[in-house]
Amino acid sequence: MRLEGKRAFITAAGQGIGRAIADAYLREGAIVTATDLNAGLLKGLDGATCFALDVTDKAALQSAVVEAAPDILVNCAGVVHAGSIADATDAEFDVAMNLNMRSQFHAMQAALPGMVDRGGGSIINIASVASTVLAAPNRYLYATSKAAVIASTKAVAIDYIRQGIRANAICPGTVDSPSLHERLKATGDYDAAKEAFIARQPMGRIGLPEEIAHLAVYLGSDESSFTTGQAHVIDGGWANG
Ligand code: NAD
């Protein structure tokens, strides 16, 4: 198994990409701590230690990370705000930055000292292609926060490279998840919005959470031992268009 004996801590493991990563990590032999704002969503992650965790609660997040002493930290929690800069409010700016970015900063700060003591670790931060990779319309706050995720990942990677710690970002394109369906519904025309999302995918389809989880297994495992500080794009060819 590719993650045999490695301790992994995953945020937002209840559904979508985080859930697929938790499932894949369990299959690959990792010792998984799976957390989510909504603990009910963690049902079925047999073999994992599961509990409710709001990643915007700094004290709770940091003590949970220190307790789990992870070899692999997967920061997956995030929220999408729709709209251009004209639509964005200060309150939404704070939510986007606190949930998408600051939570990763806090989790990494808590995980790194233990990783240094143990001689290594792998940090995986979920970003998005909507960031520095490409410009998606009406994703001002989201893209700004996810660009910060990429910069934060690269900064940690360079500062800890000689301590055996790797940090990588995953930049998914459009992936089928419960919140994607909510975003499609919120447009007022689910079918048209879905068609438009698919149309921007050169592959002609939306991705699956499991396809992102394969990359997260690779980045968490020693197979990726020469890879750090990168924004790994996995998007059905969207950014290649
Ligand atoms: P999702 O949005 O459907 O689910 C998000 C999960 O996060 C839920 O289980 C929710 O309970 C949890 N969550 C929300 N607020 C939280 C908080 N404060 N603390 C802890 N958990 C919280 O899942 P998804 O669409 O797979 O998104 C997961 C990550 O992947 C996000 O960071 C998202 O930005 C990123 N992403 C998603 C897509 C996509 O198309 N789905 C594309 C690129 C990046």
From TrEMBL:
Pfam families per the UniProt record, alphabetical: adh_short_C2
Keyword Oxidoreductase: yes
Domain of life: Bacteria
GO molecular function list: oxidoreductase activity
Keywords in alphabetical order: NAD, Oxidoreductase
Family matches, as InterPro entries: NAD(P)-bd_dom_sf, SDR_DHRS6-like, SDR_fam
Record bears the keyword Cell membrane: no
Family: Belongs to the short-chain dehydrogenases/reductases (SDR) family.
Protein name as annotated: 2-keto-3-deoxy-L-fuconate dehydrogenase
Lineage: Bacteria, Pseudomonadati, Pseudomonadota, Alphaproteobacteria, Rhodobacterales
